[in-house]
């Protein structure tokens, strides 16, 4: 996934603007809390991906079961 795609919603955000945003985050939260926040965000994203994959597999199994010929 390209960094440009991730920040596509921000429009024409250049390097200088990104540095200002990063400095603001650093000042607001402090250097000691940022790794913990990033770890929590990573865990949340991983759980979301796992849940969507599980739902996808359930739907695929359901479709396969519906397409199997039924024995009477």
Automatic annotation (TrEMBL):
<dbReference type="InterPro" id="IPR003369">
    <property type="entry name" value="TatA/B/E"/>
</dbReference>
<keyword id="KW-1003">Cell membrane</keyword>
<comment type="function">
    <text>Part of the twin-arginine translocation (Tat) system that transports large folded proteins containing a characteristic twin-arginine motif in their signal peptide across membranes. TatA could form the protein-conducting channel of the Tat system.</text>
</comment>
<keyword id="KW-0653">Protein transport</keyword>
<keyword id="KW-0813">Transport</keyword>
<comment type="similarity">
    <text>Belongs to the TatA/E family.</text>
</comment>
<keyword id="KW-0811">Translocation</keyword>
<dbReference type="Pfam" id="PF02416">
    <property type="entry name" value="TatA_B_E"/>
</dbReference>
<feature type="transmembrane region" description="Helical">
    <location>
        <begin position="6"/>
        <end position="29"/>
    </location>
</feature>
<dbReference type="InterPro" id="IPR006312">
    <property type="entry name" value="TatA/E"/>
</dbReference>
<keyword id="KW-1133">Transmembrane helix</keyword>
<protein>
    <recommendedName>
        <fullName>Sec-independent protein translocase protein TatA</fullName>
    </recommendedName>
</protein>
<comment type="subunit">
    <text>Forms a complex with TatC.</text>
</comment>
<keyword id="KW-0472">Membrane</keyword>
<keyword id="KW-0812">Transmembrane</keyword>
